[in-house]
Design a protein that fits this description.
Keywords: DNA-binding, Transcription, Transcription regulation. This protein has helices at 8-13, 71-75, 88-102, 108-130, 137-142, 146-155, 163-170, 174-185, 189-206, 211-217, 223-234, 238-241, 249-252; strands at 17-20, 28-32, 40-43, 56-64, 80-83. A hairpin with a 7-residue loop joins strand 2 (28-32) and strand 3 (40-43). Helix content is 51%, strand content 10%.
Protein backbone atom coordinates (compact mmCIF):
# COMPACT_ATOMS: atom_id res chain seq x y z
CA UNK A 1 0.00 0.00 0.00
CA UNK A 2 1.35 3.44 -0.92
CA UNK A 3 2.59 5.43 2.06
CA UNK A 4 0.76 8.70 2.67
CA UNK A 5 1.95 10.83 5.56
CA UNK A 6 0.82 14.42 6.03
CA UNK A 7 3.23 15.39 8.81
CA UNK A 8 6.56 13.55 8.69
CA UNK A 9 8.24 15.64 5.97
CA UNK A 10 7.20 18.87 7.68
CA UNK A 11 8.46 17.69 11.07
CA UNK A 12 11.70 16.33 9.61
CA UNK A 13 12.66 19.52 7.77
CA UNK A 14 12.55 21.64 10.94
CA UNK A 15 14.17 21.01 14.31
CA UNK A 16 10.98 21.09 16.32
CA UNK A 17 11.62 20.78 20.05
CA UNK A 18 9.92 21.52 23.36
CA UNK A 19 11.06 22.34 26.88
CA UNK A 20 9.34 22.89 30.20
CA UNK A 21 8.43 26.53 30.80
CA UNK A 22 6.54 28.73 33.28
CA UNK A 23 2.82 28.77 32.56
CA UNK A 24 3.02 32.43 31.52
CA UNK A 25 5.43 31.46 28.71
CA UNK A 26 3.95 28.09 27.74
CA UNK A 27 2.62 27.54 24.23
CA UNK A 28 1.66 23.92 25.00
CA UNK A 29 -0.36 23.21 28.14
CA UNK A 30 -2.00 20.02 29.42
CA UNK A 31 -4.65 20.27 32.12
CA UNK A 32 -6.81 17.99 34.22
CA UNK A 33 -9.96 19.25 35.96
CA UNK A 34 -10.02 19.29 39.76
CA UNK A 35 -12.58 16.47 39.57
CA UNK A 36 -9.92 14.32 37.85
CA UNK A 37 -12.00 13.76 34.72
CA UNK A 38 -10.63 13.91 31.15
CA UNK A 39 -8.34 16.86 30.62
CA UNK A 40 -7.45 19.05 27.67
CA UNK A 41 -4.42 20.09 25.66
CA UNK A 42 -3.91 23.68 24.55
CA UNK A 43 -1.53 24.68 21.76
CA UNK A 44 -0.83 28.03 20.14
CA UNK A 45 1.85 30.09 18.45
CA UNK A 46 1.91 32.34 21.51
CA UNK A 47 1.42 31.61 25.25
CA UNK A 48 -1.93 29.97 25.88
CA UNK A 49 -4.27 30.11 28.88
CA UNK A 50 -6.41 27.12 29.98
CA UNK A 51 -10.16 27.65 29.81
CA UNK A 52 -10.62 26.54 33.43
CA UNK A 53 -8.22 28.41 35.75
CA UNK A 54 -9.06 25.94 38.54
CA UNK A 55 -7.80 22.91 36.61
CA UNK A 56 -4.55 21.16 37.51
CA UNK A 57 -1.60 21.84 35.20
CA UNK A 58 -0.01 18.56 34.11
CA UNK A 59 2.41 20.09 31.61
CA UNK A 60 3.50 23.59 30.64
CA UNK A 61 6.00 23.69 27.79
CA UNK A 62 7.27 26.07 25.17
CA UNK A 63 7.54 24.73 21.62
CA UNK A 64 10.39 25.79 19.36
CA UNK A 65 9.24 25.24 15.79
CA UNK A 66 12.72 25.48 14.30
CA UNK A 67 12.16 28.98 12.95
CA UNK A 68 9.30 31.31 12.14
CA UNK A 69 9.25 30.08 8.53
CA UNK A 70 7.98 26.62 9.54
CA UNK A 71 4.63 26.26 7.72
CA UNK A 72 3.17 24.44 10.73
CA UNK A 73 4.01 27.38 12.99
CA UNK A 74 2.56 29.83 10.47
CA UNK A 75 -0.61 27.71 10.24
CA UNK A 76 -1.34 27.60 13.97
CA UNK A 77 -4.57 29.29 15.07
CA UNK A 78 -4.50 31.53 18.14
CA UNK A 79 -5.67 28.59 20.24
CA UNK A 80 -5.95 24.91 19.43
CA UNK A 81 -7.82 22.74 21.97
CA UNK A 82 -7.58 18.95 22.03
CA UNK A 83 -10.03 17.12 24.30
CA UNK A 84 -8.45 14.09 25.97
CA UNK A 85 -11.76 12.28 26.50
CA UNK A 86 -11.45 8.96 24.68
CA UNK A 87 -7.80 9.56 23.71
CA UNK A 88 -6.21 6.94 25.93
CA UNK A 89 -2.90 6.94 24.05
CA UNK A 90 -2.30 10.63 24.69
CA UNK A 91 -3.42 10.27 28.32
CA UNK A 92 -0.82 7.53 28.81
CA UNK A 93 1.82 9.70 27.15
CA UNK A 94 1.01 12.55 29.53
CA UNK A 95 1.30 10.13 32.44
CA UNK A 96 4.84 9.24 31.36
CA UNK A 97 5.74 12.93 31.09
CA UNK A 98 4.20 13.62 34.50
CA UNK A 99 6.27 10.82 36.06
CA UNK A 100 9.49 12.30 34.65
CA UNK A 101 8.56 15.76 35.93
CA UNK A 102 7.64 14.58 39.44
CA UNK A 103 10.51 12.11 39.83
CA UNK A 104 13.41 13.44 37.76
CA UNK A 105 16.28 11.06 37.05
CA UNK A 106 19.32 11.09 34.79
CA UNK A 107 18.22 12.22 31.34
CA UNK A 108 14.75 13.33 32.45
CA UNK A 109 15.05 16.64 30.62
CA UNK A 110 15.80 14.80 27.37
CA UNK A 111 12.99 12.29 27.95
CA UNK A 112 10.48 15.06 28.69
CA UNK A 113 11.52 16.91 25.55
CA UNK A 114 11.20 13.84 23.32
CA UNK A 115 7.86 12.77 24.78
CA UNK A 116 6.52 16.30 24.43
CA UNK A 117 7.49 16.26 20.75
CA UNK A 118 5.46 13.05 20.36
CA UNK A 119 2.60 14.76 22.17
CA UNK A 120 2.82 17.64 19.71
CA UNK A 121 2.53 15.27 16.74
CA UNK A 122 -0.50 13.60 18.31
CA UNK A 123 -2.21 16.98 18.76
CA UNK A 124 -1.55 18.02 15.16
CA UNK A 125 -2.61 14.60 13.87
CA UNK A 126 -5.86 14.80 15.83
CA UNK A 127 -6.64 18.30 14.58
CA UNK A 128 -5.96 17.31 10.96
CA UNK A 129 -8.03 14.13 11.17
CA UNK A 130 -10.92 15.98 12.84
CA UNK A 131 -10.80 18.89 10.39
CA UNK A 132 -10.86 21.30 13.32
CA UNK A 133 -9.01 24.15 11.58
CA UNK A 134 -11.01 26.08 9.00
CA UNK A 135 -8.28 27.75 6.94
CA UNK A 136 -4.57 27.59 6.25
CA UNK A 137 -2.19 24.68 5.82
CA UNK A 138 -3.84 22.51 8.49
CA UNK A 139 -7.19 22.95 6.76
CA UNK A 140 -5.60 21.90 3.48
CA UNK A 141 -4.04 18.84 5.08
CA UNK A 142 -7.45 17.96 6.55
CA UNK A 143 -8.98 17.78 3.08
CA UNK A 144 -8.71 14.27 1.64
CA UNK A 145 -8.12 15.65 -1.87
CA UNK A 146 -6.01 18.74 -1.31
CA UNK A 147 -3.78 16.95 1.17
CA UNK A 148 -2.45 14.71 -1.59
CA UNK A 149 -1.28 17.67 -3.64
CA UNK A 150 0.19 19.42 -0.58
CA UNK A 151 2.09 16.30 0.51
CA UNK A 152 3.37 15.91 -3.06
CA UNK A 153 4.74 19.47 -2.89
CA UNK A 154 6.38 18.77 0.48
CA UNK A 155 7.90 15.47 -0.62
CA UNK A 156 9.05 16.55 -4.09
CA UNK A 157 9.82 20.30 -3.99
CA UNK A 158 12.36 19.92 -6.80
CA UNK A 159 9.78 18.65 -9.28
CA UNK A 160 8.60 21.13 -11.91
CA UNK A 161 4.99 21.07 -10.77
CA UNK A 162 2.23 22.60 -12.88
CA UNK A 163 -1.30 23.35 -11.71
CA UNK A 164 -2.52 20.47 -13.88
CA UNK A 165 -0.05 18.08 -12.20
CA UNK A 166 -1.19 19.10 -8.73
CA UNK A 167 -4.85 18.91 -9.71
CA UNK A 168 -4.27 15.32 -10.86
CA UNK A 169 -2.66 14.51 -7.52
CA UNK A 170 -5.83 15.78 -5.85
CA UNK A 171 -8.13 13.99 -8.29
CA UNK A 172 -9.85 17.25 -9.26
CA UNK A 173 -10.32 19.32 -12.36
CA UNK A 174 -7.84 22.18 -12.63
CA UNK A 175 -10.47 24.87 -12.06
CA UNK A 176 -12.02 23.10 -9.06
CA UNK A 177 -8.59 22.41 -7.58
CA UNK A 178 -7.49 26.05 -7.89
CA UNK A 179 -10.75 27.27 -6.35
CA UNK A 180 -10.67 24.80 -3.44
CA UNK A 181 -6.97 25.31 -2.70
CA UNK A 182 -7.39 29.08 -2.48
CA UNK A 183 -10.48 28.74 -0.30
CA UNK A 184 -8.99 26.25 2.17
CA UNK A 185 -5.29 27.12 2.27
CA UNK A 186 -5.65 30.86 1.68
CA UNK A 187 -3.21 31.18 -1.22
CA UNK A 188 -2.72 29.76 -4.70
CA UNK A 189 -0.92 26.44 -5.22
CA UNK A 190 1.88 28.28 -7.04
CA UNK A 191 2.34 30.69 -4.14
CA UNK A 192 2.47 27.87 -1.60
CA UNK A 193 4.90 25.87 -3.74
CA UNK A 194 7.16 28.90 -4.14
CA UNK A 195 7.11 29.67 -0.41
CA UNK A 196 7.92 26.06 0.48
CA UNK A 197 10.82 25.94 -1.99
CA UNK A 198 12.26 29.21 -0.73
CA UNK A 199 11.95 28.05 2.87
CA UNK A 200 13.90 24.89 2.08
CA UNK A 201 16.38 26.94 0.08
CA UNK A 202 17.05 29.17 3.09
CA UNK A 203 17.85 26.08 5.16
CA UNK A 204 20.25 24.76 2.55
CA UNK A 205 21.98 28.14 2.27
CA UNK A 206 22.38 28.33 6.04
CA UNK A 207 24.21 25.00 5.83
CA UNK A 208 26.62 26.44 3.25
CA UNK A 209 25.11 25.32 -0.07
CA UNK A 210 25.94 27.42 -3.12
CA UNK A 211 23.31 29.82 -4.45
CA UNK A 212 23.52 28.40 -7.98
CA UNK A 213 23.10 24.83 -6.77
CA UNK A 214 20.15 25.72 -4.53
CA UNK A 215 18.42 27.65 -7.32
CA UNK A 216 18.73 24.66 -9.63
CA UNK A 217 17.67 22.20 -6.92
CA UNK A 218 14.35 23.93 -6.36
CA UNK A 219 13.34 24.52 -9.93
CA UNK A 220 14.32 28.16 -10.52
CA UNK A 221 15.34 28.96 -14.08
CA UNK A 222 18.30 31.11 -13.07
CA UNK A 223 20.21 32.18 -9.95
CA UNK A 224 19.09 35.75 -10.69
CA UNK A 225 15.41 34.82 -10.68
CA UNK A 226 15.93 32.80 -7.51
CA UNK A 227 17.70 35.72 -5.82
CA UNK A 228 14.85 38.11 -6.63
CA UNK A 229 12.20 35.70 -5.33
CA UNK A 230 14.26 35.00 -2.22
CA UNK A 231 14.68 38.68 -1.41
CA UNK A 232 10.95 39.30 -1.89
CA UNK A 233 10.13 36.62 0.66
CA UNK A 234 12.87 37.14 3.25
CA UNK A 235 13.96 40.74 2.70
CA UNK A 236 17.60 39.76 2.24
CA UNK A 237 19.78 38.24 -0.44
CA UNK A 238 20.51 34.49 -0.59
CA UNK A 239 24.24 35.10 -0.27
CA UNK A 240 23.67 36.79 3.10
CA UNK A 241 22.13 33.54 4.39
CA UNK A 242 24.99 31.36 3.27
CA UNK A 243 27.49 30.10 5.79
CA UNK A 244 30.86 28.85 4.55
CA UNK A 245 31.51 25.16 5.00
CA UNK A 246 34.01 22.55 4.00
CA UNK A 247 33.39 21.18 0.52
CA UNK A 248 31.48 17.90 0.39
CA UNK A 249 31.64 15.16 -2.20
CA UNK A 250 28.33 16.44 -3.57
CA UNK A 251 29.70 19.98 -3.97
CA UNK A 252 32.83 18.91 -5.84
CA UNK A 253 31.09 16.31 -8.02
Amino acid sequence: MERFDRLTTLMARFRVSARLAPLSEATLVATRPATHGPGKLYLGAHPVAPEDPESDILLAARVDWGGAANPLFLALPDLMVHDLAGDEGTVQLLSLIDTEIRSPRCGSETVIGRLTEVLLVRILRGQIEAGSVESGLLAGLSDARLSRSIVAIHDQPERLWTSDDLAREAGLSRSRFMELFQARVGETPAAYLRRWRLTLASQDLALGARVERVAHRYGFRSPEGFSKAFKRQFGRSPISMRKPQRPTLQDVS
